[in-house]
Design brief:
By secondary structure, the protein is α+β, with helices and mostly antiparallel strands. The chain folds into two domains: 36 residues, YefM-like domain (YefM-like fold), CATH 3.40.1620; 28 residues. 48% of the residues lie in helices and 18% in strands. It has a three-stranded mixed beta sheet.
């Protein structure tokens, strides 16, 4: 993770977007964290990020886990393959 002042980000956003493809960049204002710049190397990375941060998706995952913990579900070996 890298910290960069907002003034530098504004001066060369394209460069920092490229850098953000490989590491998150903390944007600081007056020396204090103010935001984060996250880049995506591919459209798939963008899709993954959206899923990982979608509250509806996260809620569905938690419901599925709760269901499995409660003994509801189908064991993998019982699934038929087509």
């Amino acid at each position: 993770m890298k910290e960069v002042p907002l003034s530098e980000i504004k001066d060369d956003l394209s460069r920092f977007l490229r850098e953000a493809e490989t590491q998150e960049i903390i944007i600081t204002r007056h020396g204090k964290p103010a935001g984060i710049l996250i880049g995506f190397e591919s459209e798939e990375d963008w899709f993954d990020y959206r899923l990982e941060n979608d509250p509806r998706f996260l809620r569905r995952i938690e419901q599925a886990r709760d269901s499995l913990r409660a003994g509801r579900g189908v064991p993998l070996e019982d699934l038929e393959t087509e």
